[in-house]
Amino acid sequence: MGPALQYFMPRPGPDPRGVALEPFVHQVGGHSCILRFDSGTVCKVLIRREHDVYHSLPADLRPFTAQYRGVVLVRVEQSKTGSILLIAHPAGMNHVSVAGVCCPKRNRGTSWGREGERVRDSAGSPKTRDETLEALKQPYMLRLPLSGCPPRTQDLLAQLNPWARRLYQYRVERLREEGEREFLLLEDLTQGFRLPCVLDVKLGCRQHGEGASLEKQRSQSKKCEQSTSAELGMRVCGMQVFQLDSDQMIFLNKYLGRSLSAEGCRGILGQFFHSGARLRRGVIAGVLTRLGELREIVERQEGYRFYSSSLLILYEGAEPCSVDSVRFDVRLIDFAHTSSPLFSSHDGVTHGGSDAGLLLGLRSLQGMLGEILRQDREGREGLQRPTPL
């Protein structure tokens, strides 16, 4: 039994007790809602391929990914006070009970694509997008003051982080339609951070998986061509960063990230590693070391393609720049579209060598961070931060 599943203790009666899930307030990117299971664990919708990747990751890559902690079944329930809650229940001792993409209660007349998306209803009309999700599709950068911080920073960020809040609302509505769904339990990478600064960087020159429809391939290819992904193998997919001088949390969403040029991308990176008063040179130096280590490991992964995976960079924003050892972390996340020798017979494709697109993204990121450090050393005006939209 995984450590997170120990929350489910046996008790008399047919059903063990469930765990009420909360919005994960530090989610800055992605389109699938991340939920908080406990103080060290989050959960996300189970995609079978991602589940299998976590079980088959090479040993040397595991320190650069989140720890896998099992599977739970999530459904919408109503509390005694009338509140609508998302409740997690055991899904059979870490066993994924539904083959393929899990959706135990599918609506009649709905077909499902290989990547788990609803594509057409019974009348054959194109898929419709929920208004709640559409409301997210506006590029923004927000600066929100943290003055008057409540006892729990978690409470404040739950009110402020618009991306996490709206994705949670959207997930509640989807689960009302679906009935229930299995979720992966994963390590919460922000555990132990008081004011985590989080940057989500989408890596690679291609985002669609092997089983993507032609429509999906065209859509994802267009996003890469119109952003820095095609040129640099990376694009900014979301950010939250705390500014010590103004006591503000800055949020940037993926739609603004897509519109950035290479120079704009470098400017955002400069802002992410800036306290508002000075550059966090020590954090950048540590991140550069970790990026070099990750590159060496990825270069050894024969046949892997990490399509649509992201690099998550985190550091403690509450610590002043004068502190010698500000905590930071670098992890690779999101494996729903990963291709590897494990899936070659299913996909009908066998890849040779390492993932050139992901490696290009890591090199581009290293180059930009090195340039930011160089400009800071020379005292040049290279770290101009974008104004909020």
General description of the model:
Belongs to the inositol phosphokinase (IPK) family. InterPro entries: IPK, IPK_sf. Keywords: Kinase, Transferase. Helix content is 30%, strand content 22%. The protein is of the alpha+beta class. It has 2 domains: 183 residues, no CATH class; 187 residues, D-amino Acid Aminotransferase, Chain A, domain 1. The strands form 3 sheets. A 6-stranded antiparallel barrel has the order 1-2-3-9-4-5. A hairpin with a 2-residue loop joins β2 and β3. The relative contact order is 0.16. The C terminus is likely disordered.
Concise summary:
The protein is an alpha+beta fold. Helix content is about 30%, strand content about 20%. The chain folds into two domains: about 5-185, no CATH class; about 190-375, D-amino Acid Aminotransferase, Chain A, domain 1.
Keywords:
30% helix; six-stranded antiparallel barrel; 389 residues; 2 domains; six-stranded antiparallel sheet; alpha+beta; D-amino Acid Aminotransferase, Chain A, domain 1; single chain; 14 strands; globular; 11 helices
Task: Set out the fold topology.
Blueprint: E1 19-23, E2 35-38, E3 41-45, H1 48-56, E4 68-78, E5 84-90, E6 111-112, E7 118-120, H2 131-134, E8 141-145, H3 153-160, H4 162-178, E9 180-187, E10 196-203, H5 214-225, H6 229-232, E11 234-243, E12 248-252, H7 254-258, H8 262-272, H9 281-299, E13 310-316, E14 328-333, H10 344-347, H11 356-378
Antiparallel strand pairs: 1-2, 1-5, 2-3, 3-9, 4-5, 4-9, 6-7, 8-12, 10-11, 10-13, 11-12, 13-14
Helix pairs in contact: 9-11
InterPro entries: IPK (IPR005522), IPK_sf (IPR038286)
Region (Disordered): 110-129
EC number: 2.7.-.-
